[in-house]
Design a protein that fits this description.
single chain, alpha/beta, Rossmann fold, SIR2/SIRT2 'Small Domain', 2 domains, six-stranded parallel sheet, three-stranded antiparallel sheet, elongated, binds adenosine-5-diphosphoribose
Length: 244
Amino acid sequence: MEIPPELITFLRSCVHAAALTGAGVSKESGLRTFRDPMDGLWAEYRPEDLATPEAFERTPELVWEFYAARRLKAGEVQPNPGHLALVEMERHVPHFTLVTQNVDGLHRRAGSKCVVELHGNITRVKCSHGCGVFTEWEEISGKAPTCPACGEKLRPDVVWFGEILPGDELATAVQAARTCSIFFSIGTSGLVQPAASLPFLAKQNGAMIVEVNTEETPLTPSVDYFFQGKSGEILPELVKAAWG
Ligand code: APR
């Protein structure tokens, strides 16, 4: 893979970097993405049947089943070289913020320290009534568990379509996009807001934009460098070229 020397030089001297990852970064670990034409989750299921508050109200058991299966699968797989390359990048860049749309927890399991989980985490559950109770999935049982504090239904701690993102995480992600000198968009179709706006925000602040994705996306025409291919192959080469 050809890596422009000016990108390597820029990376080596970089103090503030940010990355936005999507389901594509976990694909090589064996997890399905959402919109890959052949095997994306939304090719088989309708998001409105599983990933909305209305779906949870209508059929909580079905929604629990869907997330329980995804959580189980996420626990069975391992971080891949793409996740590990981002851990390495965090070691070399003084201020590195990893913003992820993924709920699989693989970045943290790989060893990334500064991870902003914009869409929540599938290993956690929370009270659907907002009484502030959060717990680990292991603590609960039954098909539609209830909150120990208020008796309302518990739910997976993930952001569903139509819901607002966790305020602190979004603020941290926006701040990182505003202050970074290089912004990576990795393994995301760039179709879901507000995450999809982050690279454009970074560009407005004058950051260099680097995209790593198997397909072109709406962001591609605006980036400085587009590496088409698998993040598990490209990211380790980028990190090796920059820091050996
Ligand atoms: N390496 C890099 N990119 C890859 C790889 C890979 N090995 N495999 C697939 N991709 C790319 C696909 O080409 C696609 O552009 O990853 C992208 C995955 O896009 P989506 O499936 O749309 O996933 P994502 O962008 O994370 O979706 C955003 O939508 O459904 C909601 O909340 C859900 O967080 C999710 C959000």
